[in-house]
Amino acid sequence: MDKFTQAYIPGCELAVDEVMIGFKGRFFLKQYLPGKPNKWGIKVRGIADSANGYLLKCDIYKGKKEIRQQDLLLGEQVVQQLTENFWGKWHHIFYFDNFFSSTNLMKILLEQETYSCGTTRANRKNWPTEFRKPTVLKLKTGESRKMQHEDVVVVVWQDKRVVLLLSTNSNPWTDGSVTRKTGKGNEEIEIACPQAIINYTKHTGGVDVSDQKREYYGVGRF
User: pLDDT digit string (tens) for 22-45?
Assistant: First the structure.
């Protein structure tokens, strides 16, 4: 891990995610994650450069042997441990999914001069009461609602399904657009999309790229 950070200076955008190292034998750390390409194996949390998938640091999930900090959620603790070497440089640690994100984590990272962005869940602590039931907002495709408390922006956006996101690195007034198929052959339309979600979609796959390259160039066992 020390050599990883010594050999390469990362860009601005970094991504945090978890991947599986495929393994079906007997091992007390073996996990089952049905949503991963390798459903059985060893779960690893990592941080990578979003531009090229370069893995900067990773940590193996240890199950019951994990040392927990009682004042933090597990996802908050994992992100802090993975990102602390990059604090104070105004990196954009975008790009973690709803397992990791919380308003508390956003504030902690911002205090350490680090921006962040991630999808979240409506039942998380400090999520706005007005957005607890996003379906009640009855948003049409491309519509969004936003709120801001101090430096944390909350975004609710309607795509094919509703998307919930927290951000400290985007202007809540800025929207872009994305292309979607209409279902009529190859016909496409553009719909409005908050800039925070565009940024998230663009940069969130750093760890997935790293995992993909690891599969291509696996180390053989002898």
Answer: 888 888 888 888 877 778 988 888
